[in-house]
Amino acid sequence: MIYRDLHDFLRRLEETEELLRVRVEVDPNLEVAEIADRVSKLNDGGVALLFEKVKGSRFPLAINLFGSERRICLALGVDDLNALYRHANEFLSLLPDGLAKRWWEFIGFPPKQVEKAPCQEIVEITADLTRYPFLKCWQEDSGKTITLPLVFSADPVTGGANCGMYRVQILDSARVAIHWQPRSGGAKHFQKYLEQGKRMPVAIAIGGEPAVLFSAILPLPVTVDEMRFAGFLRNTPVELVSCLTTPLLVPAGAELVIEGYIESSEMIRGCTFGNHTGFYAPAPDAPVVHVTCVTRKKSPVFTATVVGRPPMEDCWLAKAAERLILPFIQLELPEIVDINLPMEWIFHNSAIVSIDKKYPGHAGEVMHALRKSAWLQRARLLLVVDADLDVRDLSLVAWKVINNMDWQRDLLPVDDRLANSSPDSSFPLSESLVNIDATRKWPEERNGRPWPSEIVKDEAVRRLVDRRWKEYGF
Questions:
Q1: Model confidence over 164-203: pLDDT tens digits?
Q2: What HEC string does 319-340 produce?
Q3: pLDDT tens for residues 253-290?
Q4: Which CATH class is domain 6-304?
Q5: Is 17 helix (H, G, I), strand (E, B) or coil?
Q6: Rounded to an integer, what distance in angstroms lies between the CA atom of residue 214 and that of residue 383?
Q7: For 29, which DSSP code?
Q8: Domain 333-446 has CATH 3.40.1670.10
Q9: Fewest CB within 10 A of the end CB: N or C in the chain?
């Protein structure tokens, strides 16, 4: 299903009884986050919430939009998450021989530029960001933040565009700070502007069509345009419009757009935020954006999310990403059978990968290749298991891992240059990366000793007990 904008998606959620309108006034300072946290941790992910009266603002706020498998499927127009795997697989299978390795040149639809856009119905040259329903999520957060933004930037050398989802901190009525991770696309653009000593144009869009929001969170290779990938997900081009005061394109259907620039030397330091790990984490130094203009719809709906101890809304976004990126990972490494980004392990910062192991040392080679790829290079833990193990059965995985591992042999080092080149500030303790080989070992990997056999039940006795089960009194 193709949605025109956020309002279209909200109508669909209401039709399917996946949306609750909260009509009483709520406070964006901690109260909204407390409500969202409770709802997102219900067994089925609860429902999406539309707060119609947010204290201090006349604009409504939607949250937990993607906080269940059902809602993320509704957002992306699929029946189940595996349909995303099938969609990507079908695309790759249709590419001629020899071209699949350059899939990013053929994927999706190029964005379509338009002259007029709903996101520019109202133009505010004098910005006042304090009027909008931005959240303070946790008690020790350094301030209010935009938690579900689309941050647009462009490479000053190539002109290539990037759209990423980074925490945007509200500093005052006309300034924000962008907290991006060092290896993100936006951070790389910023580094180039720093080297050139130039101002960096930035645009921050809020709201929009679900496929656009989803594409912004994916760990896409730098060669892939997020807006083109969104066109692939929705099977039609994304409409973009030129900003009014900065040379960037943004989604025409966004609810609100903040335009501005970064002065290369101006940074904010010493900020702390509650993160998806469930711990507070110090944020790296963040560049300050000076707002030059705000454009919006006449009646915008703001979007937000809350991150913290899982499960939360971002976990379901990660599960959808897991299914979608698997075919692209398998294109690079066909021995990979499946992957699981467990919610309990903070999803995108750990991965269980099953492989069809062919020879001694194969698992180590796979993990090394994954560390060099775009898809899982930032995983704090990579755990590789055999192809016959269900990577979603965490109890079975735990049993196999603890029995299959020799800690001295199978805890594999990660290249220090990779591990230390981009410290992940979201983790409160260690910043190291770990690879674990929990596959069955060939005799040559075990000093000539054969692999021990698992206990197997006697089949005749099993059938006998099946027949007599009721006789035993059960």
A1: 999 999 999 999 999 998 888 999 999 999 999 999 999 9
A2: HHHHHHHHHHHHHHCCCEEEEE
A3: 999 999 999 997 789 998 999 998 899 988 889 999 99
A4: mainly beta
A5: coil
A6: 26
A7: B
A8: yes
A9: C
